[in-house]
Structure formats: C-alpha cells, structure tokens
Amino acid sequence: MKDVKCECGHVNPHGTVLCEACGKILDERENKDQLLDMRYEGSARRSQTYNKTIVDKIWNFFSSVKVGVWLIVLTLLASILGTVLPQKMYIDLPPEVYYKQEYGWFGELYYRLGFHDLYGSWWYLLLIAMIGISLVICSLDRVVPLYKALKVQRVTRHVGFLKRQRLFGINTEINDKDLHLVKEHLKERRYHVREENGDLLAEKGRFSRWGPYINHVGLIIFLFGGMLRFIPGMFVNENLWVKEGETAAVPETGETFYLQNNQFILQHYDKDQNKTFEKALERAGDVVKNYQSNVVLYKRVSDNLPGEKPKLEKVKEYKVRVNHPLDFEGYSIFQASFRSELKSMSFFLANKNTNQSVGELEIDLQDPKETYDLGNGYAVKILNYFPDFEFAKDGEPTTKTRVPNNPAFVFQMISPEKPEGETSFVAIKQTIEPFGDNTYKMAFKGIETKNTSGFIVRKDSTLWAIILGGILFMIGVIQGAYWNHRRIWIQQKDGQVWISAHTNKNWYGLKQEIEKVLRDTKLNIPEDQQQSEKTDKEGI
Amino acid sequence: MASLSSNLLFIAFILYLVATPFYGGAIKSKKELNENKGTNKWGVIAVALTIVGFIAQLGYFVTRWIASGHAPVSNMFEFTTFFGMALVGAFIVIYFIYRTSLLGLFTMPVALLVIAYASMFPKDISPLIPALQSYWLHIHVTTVAIGEAILAISFAAGVIYLVKAIDQTKSSKRTFWLEAVMFSLIAVLGFVAVSTIFSASGYHETFNWTDKHGKVNVMEYTMPAITGPHEGELLTKEGFKPLVEMPAIINAKKLNTVIWSLMAGLVLYGLIRLVLRKRIAAGLKPLVKNINLDFVDEISYRSVLIGFPVFTLGGLVFAMIWAQMAWSRFWGWDPKEVWALITWLFYAAFMHLRLSKGWHGEKSAWLAVIGFVIIMFNLVAVNLIIAGLHSYAGS
After folding, report:
1. Which of A148, A335, B198, B261 is the most buried (most CB within 10 A)?
2. Average pLDDT for A420-444
3. Which chain A residue lies closest to B298 (C-alpha atoms)?
4. Closest-approach residue (CA) in chain A for B355
5. Residues in B touching A325 (Cβ below 8 Å)
6. Which of the four pLDDT bands, split at 50, 70 and 90, describes residue A280?
7. Average of pLDDT values for A365-393?
8. Among candidates A39, A87, A323 on the partner chain, residue whose Cβ is nearest the Cβ of B130
9. Mutate to test the interface with B, among A47, A66, A79 (most CBs of B within 10 A)
C-alpha cells in the first residue's frame, strides 16, 4: 500500500482521511459531510485501512468500539443475573441442597444453569478476557496514529479544514493590534501559541487526549493482576482456627510463623452506657461492638524437624480486630469469626430415689480421664466417649467429628451397693439405661465453654498490580474528564482572517473562552455551525 | 445536639421546598429580560434559598456527627439524606458553571423527594458494627454519594431534554416512557404520603405467620395488609383482614408497602392529570421553552464526565481499599459491590457510545435516565430486597 502525499508536501500513511500536517481532506468520501469528523484527527487507523487477512479481521473486530460496548453491556447484564440469588460463597449449605430448599424450582434452575457461581463461570471470565483484549487493541489502533497526527500538525491549515470546523468565522478587517491583543489573551489563558507566516495556532490541554489510553492501560494492568491470582503461591487464602490459650502454625508460611491466641473478646453495646444509641438499641436488640483476639505472633528459630517441638521467638503482640488485621512479611491475619466450643462438662452422681449427690466430676472434653474416683467407694468410669454424637445408620452410636459439638458418654457407675457397676448412656437431654433399671444416675450439672477465634490468613502478591492499575486508571480518567484539548486557529486567507476552533468536548466552555479571548477586539466571535445547522432544520 | 440536628434538617427541607417555585418564577420571567444572560431577581432568591438550605443541612450533618461520634452515613436514613444533600451541592456547583435556573426547577424536586424518602426510615442514631468502625466509612460512603449525586444531575438535565424534545401532540413509546419516569417520581411521593399518614394515625396490626422453614413468627404491619403473610393469623382486633395471602418466599409486608405506594402514586397522578388535562411531561413543556437543546445535552454529558471519576473513586477504589481491610478481600461479589460495578459499566458504555457512536441528544438523555434508575435501584432495591454484606444499611 502506498503512502499519500498531500499538496502541502507532507507524506501521510495509507488510509489517512485528513492530512496530518495541514488537514486537507484526502479521502473523497469525507467530502459529503458538512462538518469534519475530527475524531482521532482523521488519522490512518489500521482497523479502517486493512481488512484482508485473518489477523486484520480479528484486529478489526476487537478494535471496534461497537464490539467493546457490546462486551460491556453483556458483562453488565450477566452481572445482574448473579445478584438475583446469593452466590455460592455466601451460602452455608451445599449448593445442591440450598437453592432447591430456599427458592424451590427457580432456585434449582438457577443452580443447574451454574448461576450460583456466575462470576467464576468460564463464560463470565471469557467476557472479561474479551474486554481485556478489546482494551488493548482499541487503544493501540487509535493512540499511535493519533499521537503521530498531533505531533506533525502544522500551524497553517488547509481552507477546507478550517471552514468545516464546528466553530468557524470570517473577518474581513485585519488589524494587527487586534491580532496582537488576541495573542496576549491566549497566552494569559495558558494557551501554547505557535506562529507561521502570520498564521496562528493556539493549543492547550493536549495531554487530556491521552487520558483514555492511560486509563485503559490501568485497566489492563488491573485485569492482569486479577489473572496473576491463578498462579500458585501468588495468592494465599486460608482459614485458621485457634482456641484460646493455644498456639497454631500459620498455614502457608512453611511452619515459620505461629500464632498464639490468648483471649477472644466479644463486646456488645450497652444501652445504659451509650445513651445516644438507646433508642436504636431498643429497636435492634444486641449490637456487637467489637470482635477481638489478643494474639502473640511467634517465629520459629529452630530447624523444622518432624516430631520435635519447635523453638519459638516472640515477634509481636497484637489485638486483631475487624478493620485492624495483623500484618507481617506480606501476610495479613484478619479477625473473621469465632465460635464457642464446649470445654468441659460436669456431672454429679446421685441416687435416683433420694436425688442426693454422692460426688461430683468435671470431664475435660478434649481429654477425658478413664476413671474418676469420687471416694467412699464411689467411682465413675468412662467406657465410651462420642464427642460429636449421632446414631449411625445401623443404630449404633458413633461420632461425626472429633469436635465436642454434641458430647455423649457411656458411663459405668460404681457404688458400694453396686460394686460391679451400672451402665448408663448419657447424651445431652437424653439418658438410656441399656441393662435395665439403675440405682444411680449421672445428673447434669453444668458446662464450661471456650472460645475459638476464626482467622483468615491472606497473602496477596497480586496487590501491587491491582493498586498500580487502579492508580493509573484514576489518573487517566481524571486527565481525560477534567481537562479538554482545545485548539484555536487564527489564519490569514485571501486577505481575510479566519478563525476556527475545535475541542474534544465541552463546547460551551470553549465558546465562553473564545468570547474572552476576542474581547476588546473587532474580531467576530466564530459561529457554532452545528447549532445553526440544527436551527435551520428545526425552523426555529 | 441530636434535636438541634433534626431541626436543622427540617429547616433545610423547608428552604428547598420554598426555593423550588422561585426557580419556576425565574424561568417564567426570563422572557422579559430577553437575551440578558444574567440571573433575574427570582433566580437570585431561588439560589440564595438553596444555598442557605444547603448550609442548614450541612449543620444537620455536623451536629449529628458530633452527637453520634461517627459520620452520619451509616444507615438508610443517614445515607439517603446525605445523598439528597450531595444532590443539592452538586446542583449548586453546576449552577455556577452554567447559570441556568431551569436545572434547579428539575433538580430540587428530586432532592426533596430523596430527603422525604429518607425520613421514612428509622431516624435513631445507631451504633456502628465492627466492620463499619473505620475512617473509610466517611471517605468511601461520602465519595460514593457525591459521585452519584453529580451523575443524578445528568438525569435532571436529561429529563429537561426529553420534556423539550419529545413531541407531545401524539402518543408514542417516547411519551409513554417519559410519563413512566414522571409517574415513578410521583410514586415516591405516594410512598412518603401513605407512610406519613399511617404512621401519624398510629396504625398497627400484628400477624402470626409461617416462614418457608415452617417456623411460626410474628410480623408487624404499619399499614393495613392488602397482601397478608404466609398462613397469616391476624392478632390485632379490628385489624384489616388481608385480601390476598402471599407464599412464604415473598416478603408480604414489603410488597404491601409497595402496593400502597403505587396506589397512592396513582391517585396523585390521576389528580395531577385531572388538573392539567394532559400528560405531566406535556404540562412541563412550557417551562422548558427557552432552553437550548444542545446546551442541556452538554450539561448532562458534563455531569457524567465530572461524576464518573468521583463515583469510580468512591464506589470502586475506596470501596476496594476498605473491603481489603475489613473483609480481607478487595472484591467479593457482594450484591452491592456488583451493583456498583454495574453502575460503573453502564456509565462507561454511556461514554463510549457518546464518544464513538455519536449518541448525542435524545439517545444520550435516555441513557442518563437509565443511569439514574440503576443508581436508585442500587440505593433502594439492593438494600431492601437483595440482602448481602451491606444489608445493615437496610435498617
């Protein structure tokens, strides 16, 4: 393909609509329009020029803003779908049960269509990926020729170019004093003024033209950061439960760090203490004021040998609260939840007839003893212990987990009357005497609980990309939105002074500025050709 | 301090209310001044009232902050009120750029509706749950509200454009949808009216009802139940018997409120139509006679351009920073987050359509209206219907 040489002498790349240097119309198709299409300065965009090979076709597809907008709209609609019912990360039952149980056939359908994990679905990710590709190609297709065109633009412009700007006016009187004054005004208003053979180009805010591309680069980096998460090791997200008084290795740290939980604190707002909140608290009931775990972070200083107790060195004490995570070496530990666990249960052994206690025992649910000697010939043996009791399918008692959620015991009660012992099965609110009537019983006395703090351990090595992308996006968007690229041409043609002006947006502001620039001169304010065109049509 | 605060809010509301007809006067008498660009006497009074009202509302904000110890943006009442204030603030800023009283005539009623709507929610000063105890509460929420308010100005300008541009002599899809916009605004007024009437009369009735898990609960209605709860049993003597019983999956009480609001809206709308004897949009048409279409189009677009970066900063960037600190992840696909993303995607599409596909004028005005609908959906529906991590804002 050949380059096009304009009559002004500038050689333009193939496909150029408006000469980069003087603005003469090179593409005949443009002639029909009254006003010039000034987008991208009429530069030669690859997508508008080539359409032969498969690469061209793909390039042209993704470089189209129409396609880009469709991708945005499709993503938008898909995102709406995902908010109709809770997503799988916000439900506490298995999804195959939850959706049907909570929302009936509609929930079932929602789940079957995969909408319960919509934002992790392949097609949603594909949409995002396509937006990413579109961002890259759209930007490249436009920014390179636009940059070139703005760089080589000359001061003197072709008549056709000036005449067909939206703001345009002709003055027959030329007055050097006026022109000088205008130049002063332009400079006061921070215009960059260039002169060539008595022609003048005043320009400002060109950098705002790069705003869109900078924000697109920011978005690309942001999406790249999101992609990094799929690389193993870049993103750690683990739950860590630590009981009060215990120490646990922080997961994914190679057993280098240990966390000791000294105390979990749950505080509620007190109506009497906080008079300001009295009414709200009466209406809402209990409102949590604080979730806090007082922890100590340790670092292992000994070698990591299996079976050997690690030697720990204290790093720091910290109060982990919501909004105040504990940060160390790229890891963060967040206060995420808590649970109260049964710690111990106490019973007393009593004669069923008299209900009189003959001795008490406290059973540590983590580590129950085999025999509890109550003295005077009384003793209790634990024959079997089910920390998380349930009846198995065959009717035998069994335990679901090792966590004492629902403890049950098979006791053997030894007394002077029954030295060989009586057997009793005791669970919460339930007593079974498998071998007939007993003389003695295990009466429930009380429980003690112990808190376990739930932490989330995070290490996110992708954050830098997310932050960088976010910052670039904001810079670009502000640069593009809050500044305008304005150009004013004041040129001498056929013994007249022609004034044309262009801005990429905010025409109202440009018009006001021109009024101020031409103040105190005899020069006419250029007319808005687009508006006069419309007024003609509307007949107002 | 708390009572001073609510008095100031009331004063602000009254001032905004009084200012609105002055904006009308400013336009009516503009003809006499002809080409004179400056604001006339009516306009000056209108803007002055608005500014004094804004200062009063700022007073409300500051005194409530002092009383509660945290920025009053932590529940539905506080946030929505702040949004109304931001809307007035955004209008004042745009007014001083473009000097058009007409924008005030369309923005102030929206701001009034927003504030009135806000005051239908519990106004008690409430304590902050742990997740909200962060200075990011102030930064994130206020920035979002300001961004959304600036975007809402583009809605007001868009409506002006549509009122002027749409031919009201024959009915069409365009007249229908513009009228639908007008009706939605009146339905909000309807909600405020019925809520106020029933709460002033102290209406109250209680039901025993069965939820979807088969548990029996108590539900209290503050409006006569048109739609009753699932297997509801009316406990209040002389209470209104529900006309229809809802399945357990539907929140019958909220639906009931919506039905009452729509009915009140319909009555109000009918009355207005009776007086006007034409569509509301047609009735508004004489007011916009003197405005230049390109000019409103530009105000609308400019508001989007100013509002979009602010919204992005507040609704996405600050939101992510805070979410990272409070919930350990910057993004978690919580419904509120997703709807912020949807709003953002929508305005991104809006700007691309305008820049590259030349969607100026009427198309752009419709987009501004849709954008506002999305913002309102996020404010109202996502808080009240779609529960999520942000649902504390629903009380």
Report:
1. A335
2. 83
3. A506
4. A39
5. 325, 328
6. confident
7. 86
8. A323
9. A79
Q: How far is residue B290's CA from residue B285's CA, in Å, rounded to a whole number?
A: 10
Reading the block at residue B310, the tokens are 């602010």
Residue A95 vs residues A101, A105, A115, B211, B274: alpha-carbon distances, Å: 10, 14, 11, 21, 53
Domain segments of chain B as ranges: 2-168+278-394, 172-277
Residue B93 pLDDT level (bands cut at 50, 70, 90): very high
Which of B333, B359, B360 is the best residue to mutate to test the A interface, defined by the most A CB atoms within 10 Å of its own CB?
B333
Helix B173-200, helix B136-165: angle, nearest 10: 130
User: Using CB atoms and an 8 Å cut-off, which of residues 327-386 of chain A contact chain B?
Assistant: 332, 334, 336
Residue B393: its pLDDT value, please? 43
Query: What mean pLDDT comes out for the span B62-90?
Result: 92
Decide which of B247 and B103 is more confident: B103
pLDDT of residue B154: 95
Q: Which residues contact A515 (CB under 8 A, 6 or more apart)?
A: A525
Pairing outcome for strands A371-375 and A199-204: unpaired
Please give the backbone phi and psi of residue B189, each rounded to the nearest 5 degrees, phi first. -60, -40
The Cα–Cα gap between B64 and A277 comes to 12
**Which residue in the set B129, B294, B346 is minimally distant from A76, CB to CB?**
B346
CA nearest A406: which of A429, A380, A383, A423?
A: A429
For the residues of A27-48, what is the DSSP string, one character each? SGGGGG-SS---GGGG---HHH
User: What confidence score (pLDDT) does residue B39 get?
Assistant: 67
SS (H, E, C) A458-511: EEECCHHHHHHHHHHHHHHHHHHHHCCCEEEEEEEECCEEEEEEEECCCHHHHH
ipTM of the complex: 0.89
Does B150 have pLDDT greater than 90? yes
CB–CB contact B130 A321 (8 Å): yes
In angstroms, the CA A538 to CA A518 distance is 30
**pLDDT at A335 (0 to 100):** 92
CB contact under 8 A, A477 and B294: no
Residue type, B53: G
Residue with tokens 């930064």: B139
Greatest mean pLDDT among B51-65, B93-107, B292-306: B51-65
Q: Residue B108 pLDDT > 90, yes or no?
A: yes
Give the residue carrying structure tokens 């009537």.
A437
pLDDT at B38 over 80: no
Q: What integer pLDDT is reported at residue A530 of this predicted model?
A: 79
Please answer yes or no on whether A508 and B313 come within 8 Å at the CB atom.
no
Tens-place pLDDT, residues A32-68: 567 888 888 888 888 888 888 888 899 989 988 899 9
> Which of A403, A401, A423 has its CA nearest to residue A412?
A423
CB interface of A with B, residues 255-314, below 8 Å: 269, 274, 276-277, 279-281, 283-284, 287-291
Beta pairing class for B227-228 and B244-245? parallel
Helix/strand/coil for A426 = strand
